[in-house]
Amino acid sequence: MLAAPLLVVLLAGTALSGEGSSITGTLEYIEGTTRTPVPGVTIIVTRDSAPVGTVVSDETGHWEVPVPEPGVYQVELDVDTLPEGVALSDPDRGVLPAVEVRAGQQKVIRFALGPGTTSSVAWWPRVSGLFLVGLKLGAIIALSSIGLSLIFGVTRLVNFAHGELVTLGAVLAFFFNASPLGPGWHLLIAAVPAIVLCAGFGAVQELALWRRLRRNHAGLISLIVVSIGLSIALRYLILVLFSGLPRPFTDYAVQTNIEFLGISTVPKNLVIIGLTAVVLTVVGLFLQRTRLGTAMRAVADDSDLAESSGIDVRRVILVTWIMGAGLAGLGGVMFGVSEQVQWDMGFKLLLLIFAAVILGGLGTAFGAMLGGFVIGISVEMSTLWVPVEFKTAIALGILITMLLVRPQGLLGLKERIG
Amino acid sequence: MDVVTILVDAGRAAIGVPAAGYALSAIGLNLQFGYTGLLNFGHVGFMLVGAYGLAITVDRGGSMVLGLVVGIALAVVLALLMGIPTMRLRADYLAIVTIAAGEILRLLARSTFAAPLTKGIFGIQRFANDFFAINPIPNGKYGVGTFRFDQRTLWVLLVGWSFVIGAVLFVRRLLRSPWGRVIRAIREDEDAARSLGKNVFGYKLQSLIIGGTIGALAGMLLAIDQQNVNPDAFIPLLTFYAFTIVIIGGPGTLWGPVIGAVIFWFLFELLGGIMAGALAEGWFGDLLDATDVAQLRFALFGVGLMWLMAKRPQGLFGSRTEMLIDAR
């Protein structure tokens, strides 16, 4: 039956397509010519950072993780579970990021184990490391949320298609940087046209869609539903053009850790945090010190009052869209550097963006920045205590607590929530 | 391109199990969105807890009737969890919390943490054997020409559409009661309803609970048909299928969701058939393959939703002047 292919594929997909595919292997400790099986070691299989399965090797060192369908999986050996005196022969081969499994295949993975010690990571380096990763995620969220918050401020639109601006920034940069059809520029150069095009797309959206809807006096609810439709349309269009396979940029994809203030991290994390700090300062100065920035805050505060005091509200709204979309595009490029470029990366980030914006106060730029960092750091640090899979749930928890305690957000005004 | 086959397939989809399931789901959403003005973007979460409540209960040795009760209870709990923090706030806050909650429930269902109950990404299968065991329809194919259903599908259809009609009658009963008049008053003007001494918060919460419960029943129906629940079936897109159906049929109309579901699945399947046909005829050249075409259909669905909400928010057949939602 051809009816409802989506449901058939999705509901029955696991049962039918991947029958029998798995990733398997045997852990053996090799010293000279003697081979000893290594039991009790945890192997974690994930896909797009979502868990697929976790197993512990048995007495013969054998392990097997069934996978639902053919595709690319990440296989990780948890070095903390290796017995005393046993270590990976090559410490960098503990995580295999791209293991391809074909339909019905029993993909065999070999982890080379030899003598050595793997000290489990101590408390403080783990905490400081997670704090830095959280700061980086916070930077990406902060950049991406300013636009959503400011656009809400000036137009009262909660734009559910904002995540797609993030994706668009990353995908455009990917085109100029790594795509075989593109010019193959260095990422630093490729990011410029990507952000400009993203900002331009923001302007086009405002002029062609949102301005017209506002002129027709479309209500709050219709605008939100239209933005959801736009989000779906853009997301699947990007999927058609980019394909579902996550891919990295050609630059900065793989880096070795360096020590920074006693914290071990990859250099790109520090660059993302530093660059974001500069951009956020510039945005802050623009909002506080320039005429246009002041006008923007005035419109966000009270659009009618701003209009009657001679501010060109339509122009301010257009500038807000350009700025917000450009910043979201930059956030997308950084998100792509930090992880990989993926067709639904922005939609995944959207939940964190919403949490950040509501935490900081819907409609305020500084609130979005503050909220972004709080959410980024809390989400990453939470993995000290809760399973990684609950990262997003933590953000929702913060969001709901905030709505109960102080719905206008940290920096918001009470009247806004009405 | 075989026009007849495409039309027959589309026609079958229009009255098929997904159409029945989504009609039911949309009836719940229509009560929330069309009649009360609640922007529930996490309707898929209700479908998920319904389906999982049933599947887990049966998997753990309970009966299907107990599973039905568990699914409904979970939907009520979910409505309370999402509703209490947001019902006092503007509509967009509910939208944000519900879309996030729906997605987090999906992530929870596929997590290794919950895997002992939910079986993680593999999902739970074959939990509806009791339902098919009491199928009274003799084996065979029923219908005309290629337009046929086997006894299994027909049994699901019979039960599914009975539930749809039952739900419509139930909603009609509700709306003709004082309760129904209050929720419509809330949609029109919340402050006015409050000034008449109505507990707006309580009424909105009740509407969310009842609509969510109907959504959970829809989730169960779709899961029973497939004999399979899987976390990745419950993507946010499902919520917006239901939204599109409600808007096609006209929000705040009694039979709107049912008519909307039939039209939606007919058009969606017709579009799929035409696009697949066009691909087979080579109209797309080497530009697109079968996967691309399938994905392009979702992009067109998004455009369709935008167009409907912008141009015909009152439904395909409603009149703009009688537009009920958000007429400000």
Give an account of the 3D structure.
The complex is a heterodimer of chains A (418) and B (328). With 418 residues, chain A is α+β, with helices and mostly antiparallel strands. Chain A is built from twelve helices and 13 strands. Chain A has helices at 5-16, 123-155, 162-177, 187-215, 220-242, 267-289, 291-301, 303-308, 313-338, 345-360, 365-381, 391-405, and strands at 22-26, 28-31, 34-37, 42-47, 50-56, 62-66, 71-77, 86-88, 95-101, 106-108, 113-115, 258-260, 263-265. The longest helix of chain A has 33 residues, at 123-155. The N and C termini of chain A lie far apart (49 Å). The model of chain A is unreliable at 1-18 (pLDDT under 50). Chain B is mainly alpha-helical and 328 residues long. Chain B has one domain: ABC transporter involved in vitamin B12 uptake, BtuC (Orthogonal Bundle). At the A-B interface, helix 1, strand 5, helix 5, helix 10 and helix 12 of A face helix 1, helix 4, helix 5, helix 11 and strand 4 of B.
CATH architecture designation of chain B: Orthogonal Bundle
Mean pLDDT of chain B: 89
User: Shape of chain A, please?
Assistant: elongated
Largest sheet of chain A: 4 strands, antiparallel
CATH third-level topology of chain B: ABC transporter involved in vitamin B12 uptake, BtuC
Based on the structure, what is the oligomeric state of the protein chains?
Answer: heterodimer
